[in-house]
Each structure stands twice: as C-alpha cells, then as structure tokens.
C-alpha cells in the first residue's frame, strides 16, 4: 500500500494505476477505481477515486 500526499514526487503519482492500494495515511484507504488529473498554471491536482471515497493531492508546478 502506497501513502499518497502532497510531498510524494509527481513522478510517483503519475505511475499509480487503477487497482493499486493507496492510503492518505489517516482515514482514507482502498483500491484505486479511477484517476483524474487536472492542470492549472500553478498546480497539478490528482483525484484518486476509491470505492466510496476519494483522495485529492495537489502538487505545485516546478518552474525552471
């Protein structure tokens, strides 16, 4: 089971697949049913839909 949060590298978040078990380290955990990624100028938002709940992770974009 992988713990997902805002400090997890973006590359690791992008590698997660449907069916993998994740947790937010607190109350939310389960198998990923779907993944939605939204992008703005400032951040990437990952929405991991679990069975009856979801986990949201926001990552600030790195500007080089």
Low-confidence stretches: none
Q: Name the shape in a single word.
A: globular
Residues in helices, as a percent range = under 10%
Report the C-alpha radius of gyration, rounded: 11 Å
Spatial gap, N to C terminus: 32 Å
Mean pLDDT: 92
User: Based on DSSP secondary structure assignment, what is the total number of beta strands?
Assistant: 6
* Proportion of residues in extended strands: 35-45%
| Order of helical and strand elements | EHEEEEE
| Structure classification | mainly beta
Structure characterization notes:
By secondary structure, this protein is mainly beta. It has one helix and six strands, in the order E-H-E-E-E-E-E. The strands form two sheets. It has a three-stranded mixed sheet, with no helix packed on it. Strands 4-5-6 form a three-stranded antiparallel sheet, with no helix packed on it. A hairpin with a 4-residue loop joins strand 5 and strand 6 (about 55-60). It starts with a strand and ends with a strand. The model has no long low-confidence stretch (mean pLDDT about 90).
Describe the secondary-structure layout.
Blueprint: E1 2-3, H1 10-15, E2 21-23, E3 29-31, E4 34-39, E5 43-49, E6 54-60
Parallel strand pairs: 1-2
Antiparallel strand pairs: 2-3, 4-5, 5-6
Question: What is this structure, in a nutshell?
Answer:
The protein has 64 residues and is mostly beta strands. Helices cover 9% and strands 44% of the residues. The chain is built from one helix and six strands, in the order βαβββββ.
Keywords:
64 residues, mainly beta, three-stranded mixed β-sheet, three-stranded antiparallel β-sheet, 1 helix, 44% strand
